[in-house]
Design brief:
Elements: E1 2-8, E2 16-21, H1 27-33, H2 42-52, E3 58-65, H3 70-85
Antiparallel strand pairs: 1-2, 1-3
């Protein structure tokens, strides 16, 4: 089972990110401590910007999904996020 989640900007800005994880309890803390990924990655840049400002995104679990269905569920959620938030959705176009 996976959690499909939404990260949103705590300042009320429209910025959002869709992701998936098996570990929902401490995942956000671990993710924020390891944002040294690709500097061209929009969500890494967004998370670094929040961290510099002393902020953390708000994590909302959208759904609990079976392993076999998670990749499609994530792609669908990203597409919806991009349709609603446009460029404020910081996912790249490739969901894993």
């Amino acid at each position: 089972m996976y959690s499909l989640y939404l990260l949103t900007d705590p300042t009320g800005a429209e910025t959002a990110y869709i992701g998936k994880t098996r570990i929902s309890s401490d995942w956000l803390g671990q993710h924020l401590n390891d944002i040294s990924g690709n500097p061209n990655n929009r969500h890494c840049r967004w998370l670094k910007m929040l961290k510099v400002r002393g902020l953390k995104p708000i994590m909302t679990v959208l759904d609990i999904v079976l392993d076999a269905d998670i990749s499609q569920a994530e792609r669908d959620a990203i597409s919806m996020c991009q349709a609603i938030r446009g460029t404020h959705c910081v996912n790249d176009n490739r969901a894993s």
